[in-house]
Amino acid sequence: MSSVRSALFNMVDVEGKSFLELFCGSCVVSCEALSRGADRVVCVDKSKRALKICKGNLETIGGSAKLICKDVVDYLKTATEKFDIIFLDPPYEDVEVIEKTLHLLPKVMKEESLAILEKSKRIDVDLSGFEIVKKKDYGETELVFLKVKE
């Protein structure tokens, strides 16, 4: 994963930007965003255990982020803040969860926002509400860079 993460941050400038990580797990991507100058970071995951690890990782780097323990779809339904960069690392082959999340994603995106979806190359998901800016393959993993269609 570290090579995918390095590649991601070599393609996306987060300095001075707001960053949302959905399905954050241990939030290593958010920690990397903070270390590269992200202005505000929010991490969402339904697992209390994952967020406990996340908190430890943030303390290790001396970073701070808002941690939200909530199902990602439920979070997106009620979210009011918009972000510059959104990173999604949903359950790899759960097309239903991925598509529900993508359907709600524009609520937290600004006109110029970029969303990066990490998913298995073996699955296809409906991206009809988005413009695909770029796709990059890393073994079984695919990063899909998305903007909201105008």
Automatic annotation (TrEMBL):
InterPro entries: DNA_methylase_N6_adenine_CS, RNA_MeTrfase_RsmD, SAM-dependent_MTases_sf. One of its GO terms (biological process) is rRNA methylation. Keywords: Methyltransferase, Transferase. The keyword Ribosomal protein does not apply. SUPFAM superfamilies: S-adenosyl-L-methionine-dependent methyltransferases. The keyword Cell wall biogenesis/degradation does not apply. Pfam families: Cons_hypoth95. GO terms for molecular function: methyltransferase activity; nucleic acid binding. PROSITE patterns: N6_MTASE. This is Methyltransferase. It comes from Thermotoga neapolitana (strain ATCC 49049 / DSM 4359 / NBRC 107923 / NS-E).
